Amino acid sequence: MYLKRILLGIMLIGITNISNSQSYTGFLSDNYNGVHGIITNPANIADSRLKLDINLIGISAFFGNDYIGFKLKDALADYSDVFDEADTTPSPNNSLAWNIDVLGPSVMFGINEKSSVAFFTRGRGFFNLNDVDGSLIEKEGGFEESQDFLINEGLISGSANVWAEIGVTYARVLLNNNQHFIKGGVSLKYLQSAGHAYIYADGVEVNYNAGNRLVETSGELIFANSSISDDGGNFDINNGSGFGADLGLVYEWRPEYESYTKLDANGSSIINKGKNKYKLKFGVSVTDIGQIKNSSGRESTYDLNKIQDIDGFDGKDLEESLEQGFDLISQTPSVNSSLPTALHTNMDWNLNSKFYVNLNTDIPLTTRNKINTNRVLSEISVTPRYESALFSLYSPLSVVQYAGFQWGAGLRFGPVYLGSGSIMSVLIGDTSKSFDLYAGVKLPFYQNKLRDKDNDGIEDKSDACPETPGPIENNGCPWEDTDGDGTLDKDDDCPQVAGPKENKGCPWKDSDNDGIFDKDDDCPNIYGLEQYNGCPDTDGDGLIDKNDRCPNNAGKIENKGCPDTDKDTLVDIDDQCPNTFGPVENNGCPEVTKAVQKQLNEYAKTILFDTGKATIKPESVSTMVDIIQILNEYPHAKFTVEGHTDSVGSASSNQKLSEARANAVRDFLINEGILSSRLTAVGFGEDKPIASNTNRIGRKQNRRVEINLIK
């Protein structure tokens, strides 16, 4: 049958042209995969556990479908009969994918503490066939020439692309904030096509009449290739070129980041690059962004509306069946090949230092039936693994689009890695709709691990006592206790003499030699008495000097050790008149009464001056002495000396005369010992008469001096 030939031809093309999805299953979750980390996420190579990784050769191949299930025993017994013995599950939209991913000579290395680069070469093939009616390829599907059949195919599409890549990856640490760590990366790659082929048809119908052996077909079919024949063909490396890119981010949660930091001999912090530091790691990436611009190849559209004898297709290959059996509607250059853009997410849980569980998803971002567009198969996988620098072991459990559940196993031992994402399913199950294998050889150079046997935070090569914990201040060795008093020398103020810890390793002192140790002596630097905890009581009043306001004069305790000589309840130290009884509110001094004030003014009125002058007459000296005696009885009272005149003469001359006489009295008192701060002189002239100035007696009364208390 021509249509069967077309479909089988496309499948043969796919078998020889294979892809990237489901590559290196299990191995890509390994933190020691080195340059392979760029395949799913270019950010992986930043802060890698390898300082240098050289991949020599690695290959990963995968086949998955929802139509045919192989039996391993049949394949091992006779490979040529494997299709005849296989179980089939035909449906109106059977699909399959077939791929190969060859990682050629590639290298990854760190530039500095934060950045890493990789240079890689890669060969890739990718084949998808979508929505085939399984009855068309059913091994006993009713295609006997003696039987009628009618098939309405609907939409069918398929594409195959083979290309080579050469690229560069740059990855960098974006955030390193103690517990939170983020790195990002990008891969840029040049693509060189080695060939492509694709088919697309919608609404194709086939009606076979066994009686007249005629086949009636309808619909249109698009077929294109570039130097790829239906039997495998030859590839031309000049079929086209393009550019692609991969982008990725990785976040790590590092709750115990401090345990991965050690100290060197200088006390500087250094990071243990040889250890994984995360408890949880999350990654997200988008790969294969771009396309290949095909420079050769043709796309042919055929009109399938025709009735033909079935014998007209015998012995013809795919292109012959189309070219000789149907009319060519149009022919144009092949459309560009779209890369199998995909979204990858990854979560890795560090159970302990060597056991991990990884959750990975691959999600296609390309349209299923778009012309000349390949796509990855959707997949979700959980991979428990044992991981160390030299050896890792994985056992991925996956659910793959079309193929269903898969169970695999893989390992890495030094430079060798190999495995399969489905080997256990194939070995244990009756049939398998998917199978993959990978293997390769590389030269890994591991990051140095910082050793710290005694767990004192100092790397062993900088630790003078690597077997015994000690501080960096003592080069990693424990401190000594020379005098054996339980206080380490570093904390012992007397390392050669034993003493209690409370005194920093020194024996207790008695600084004042009063027989009481300083620790128990309230006055350690002053000789004192035991009953007073080493403090003195100089005046013997029962109150120690440091609490005694009058340490040299005995006094009552309630008076804080001070005496009260005049018994006015104000202690002498606070009493401005300690020898004279006076109220507290007047600072212990007696108050100036109205009678005293009156007596002062009577004395002051008898002070005589030379006529028209401010000179005090000698006969007034006895009066001044009486005034001084009164003022001394009130040493803290302040007074105003006031001068007054009668109205004889001008007002200005009287004012000056009154001021002069007031100052004369004030100066006399000061000269006799009265404090100047207690006296103020002021003249009022003729302004404040106390009698009439119209007669001699009145004027005499108005010529006076008064001494008044300042309140």
Verbal overview:
This is OmpA family protein. Keywords: Cell outer membrane, Membrane, Signal. This protein folds into two domains: 2-446, Porin (Beta Barrel); 594-709, OmpA-like domain (60s Ribosomal Protein L30, Chain: A), CATH 3.30.1330.60. The chain contains nine helices and 30 strands. With 711 residues, it is mainly beta. 13% of the residues lie in helices and 36% in strands. A hairpin with a 5-residue loop joins strand 12 and strand 13. The chain has helices spanning 2-16, 72-77, 82-85, 318-325, 423-428, 594-605, 621-633, 651-671, 696-702; strands at 50-65, 68-69, 87-88, 94-103, 106-110, 115-132, 149-177, 180-209, 214-218, 220-225, 240-253, 261-263, 269-271, 280-294, 298-303, 306-309, 327-333, 337-338, 342-350, 355-364, 379-387, 391-394, 397-400, 404-407, 409-413, 416-420, 434-446, 639-644, 679-683, 704-709. Residues 1-21 and 228-235 have low confidence and may be disordered. The radius of gyration is 56 Å and the shape is elongated. The strands form four sheets. It has a 23-stranded antiparallel β-sheet that branches. A three-stranded mixed β-sheet has the order 29-28-30. A two-stranded antiparallel ribbon has the order 2-3. The longest helix is centred in the C-terminal third of the chain and has 21 residues, at 651-671.
